[in-house]
């Protein structure tokens, strides 16, 4: 049987998604919990690997198993064996053609910035805090250059292992609600640190450290050394992964809906 799961997690206490020699990771923790429920070794494939400290509203994974369990058993049983900062939110039997990574049509990330003088306490570690005023209009103007297909060499980590730096950003929106700035980026796929590097450049422009056209200049340079600092992982969330309708993957909430911001 092939099973698909929707996972949410806070990444503060993990060394990213991918299983590696450094522990703990989200993948390792999830596979251990699933293996207890299945009574056999389970290996999962995810829609997109998240970095150390990055969170997910809905990460999508699939795995194959010979164990027969009700979908609610995969949810409740796995959660009972997980730490409190990782949760399976849904499970479903899925078509054999489904692949969590390769069937995905696009991914959406949101970056959440609290822009006020006082530091946060309640959401510490779950958002990025900037005490200096950010110029929303300048950031919004600068963001337009990222839309479409581009070589994002300047916006990927030096250690990025992707074969090609070319990605297509379908949509990039910046919204402001009171003290909050929310940057939403939807693309066919992402490079290592791509969203955080884009946000780092936009924040430098919002702080009047750079001019609006600097974002485009960095993009066209195709050179990571000309880019800005990488924004902190705290504010970054994998929000949703879009698949063909035939797979009937449940819709995900946004960060705003999860935190009830703007209500």
Summarize the topology:
Blueprint: E1 2-9, H1 26-38, E2 45-46, E3 55-64, H2 71-80, E4 86-93, E5 106-115, E6 128-130, H3 136-143, E7 148-151, E8 166-177, E9 180-187, H4 194-206, H5 214-221, E10 236-242, H6 255-259
Parallel strand pairs: 3-10, 5-6
Antiparallel strand pairs: 1-3, 1-4, 2-3, 5-9, 5-10, 7-8, 8-9
Helix pairs in contact: 1-2, 3-4
What does this structure look like?
By secondary structure, the chain is an alpha+beta fold. It folds into two domains: 102 residues, Pseudouridine synthase I, catalytic domain, N-terminal subdomain (Alpha-Beta Plaits), CATH 3.30.70.580; 133 residues, Alpha-Beta Plaits (2-Layer Sandwich), CATH 3.30.70.660. 22% of the residues lie in helices and 27% in strands. It has six helices and ten strands. Strand 2 and strand 3 form a beta hairpin.
The percent range for helix content is 10-25%
Tell me what portion of residues adopts beta-strand conformation. Answer: 25-35%
CATH superfamily of the largest domain: Pseudouridine synthase I, catalytic domain, C-terminal subdomain
CATH class wording of the largest domain: Alpha Beta
Summarize the model shown.
This protein has 263 residues and is of the alpha+beta class.
Notable traits:
alpha+beta, 6 helices, 263 residues, Alpha-Beta Plaits, 2 domains
